[in-house]
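Support request from a user on the community tier.

User writes: "When I paste my structure tokens into the form, the page sometimes reloads and wipes my input. The last time it worked, I copied everything first. Here is what I submitted, just in case something in the input itself triggers the reload:"
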């Protein structure tokens, strides 16, 4: 069973607009039940704000509470699944990277804290006042999306930008990211995360990443320690474990094949590494997750 990767074009649209989709969450749920009824990935950026409803949102094996005022942010490749206790209401939109960045050439999506790194929480809890004001912007996007006025795409992207700015202000306040680090440190962290995502399968040592960044391993570790209080090795290991969990649970590959896929020379070494990082063997993790 391979984890499905959903494309924007698969979702039911009222008025097509290339690389973009928006809907009320209740409509989205009704129209796309078959697509989102089990764990899946996306090849786009997703943003959702709940105004009503409760439940659990599982993102990359971490569970988050859904309640009024919950906002979630997913980047391409993340695995997620909804489980609702009460009927949800709110808004959802998603878009490709190009849809946003071609309009804002000087600003990239990964400059927003919630899309910056898989290390940053994908959840923001808003006050009732902020939930109401931001949901009005979502509603304006939805109204614009259904209409046929001039400069439709430009207005939608501008409203998305306003929403992301408001979310960023709340996010940095809530997660105490206001203790800003030097731009050079943040630039190194950003580049490191990209390099790890591209190379974690076959490059597992900090020295490779330090060389690619043209800095010493010692300085790289200093940067990572000061910004997110981890080591480079921990970041690499976390990315390997995340991919291992995705493959163990959402594919029917043998565990030996998964270990080779992740460039481990022996399954026994992979199993020992996985248990050391998670407290569970790959076999027990697969069995427990699928039983639940």
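"...and here is what came back when it finally went through:"
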């Amino acid at each position: 069973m391979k984890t499905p990767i959903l494309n924007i074009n698969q979702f039911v649209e009222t008025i097509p607009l290339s690389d973009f989709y928006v809907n009320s969450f209740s409509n989205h749920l009704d129209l796309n039940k078959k697509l989102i009824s089990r764990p899946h990935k996306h090849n786009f950026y997703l943003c959702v704000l709940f105004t009503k409803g409760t439940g659990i949102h599982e993102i990359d094996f971490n569970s988050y509470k859904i309640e009024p005022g919950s906002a979630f942010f997913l980047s391409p490749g993340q695995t997620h699944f909804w489980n609702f206790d009460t009927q949800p209401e709110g808004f959802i939109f998603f878009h490709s990277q190009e849809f946003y960045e071609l309009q804002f050439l000087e600003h990239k999506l990964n400059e927003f804290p919630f899309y910056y790194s898989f290390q940053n929480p994908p959840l923001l809890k808003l006050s009732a006042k902020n939930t109401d004001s931001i949901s009005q912007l979502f509603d304006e996007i939805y109204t614009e999306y259904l209409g046929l006025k001039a400069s439709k795409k430009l207005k939608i992207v501008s409203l998305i930008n306003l929403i992301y700015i408001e979310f960023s202000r709340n996010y940095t306040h809530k997660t105490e990211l206001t203790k800003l680090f030097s731009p050079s440190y943040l630039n190194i962290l950003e580049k490191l995360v990209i390099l790890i995502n591209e190379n974690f399968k076959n490059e597992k040592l900090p020295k490779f990443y330090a060389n690619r960044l043209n800095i010493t391993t010692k300085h790289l570790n200093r940067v990572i320690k000061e910004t997110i209080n981890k080591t480079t090795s921990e970041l690499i290991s976390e990315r390997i474990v995340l991919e291992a969990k995705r493959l163990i649970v959402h594919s029917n590959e043998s565990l030996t094949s998964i270990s080779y896929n992740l460039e481990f020379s022996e399954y026994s070494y992979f199993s020992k590494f996985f248990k050391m990082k998670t407290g569970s063997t790959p076999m027990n993790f697969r069995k427990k997750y699928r039983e639940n």
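Agent notes: The reload is a front-end session timeout and is unrelated to the input. The two ends are 16 Å apart (CA to CA). The beta strands are 5-6, 20-24, 40-42, 45-59, 62-66, 70-74, 79-95, 123-125. Escalated to web team.
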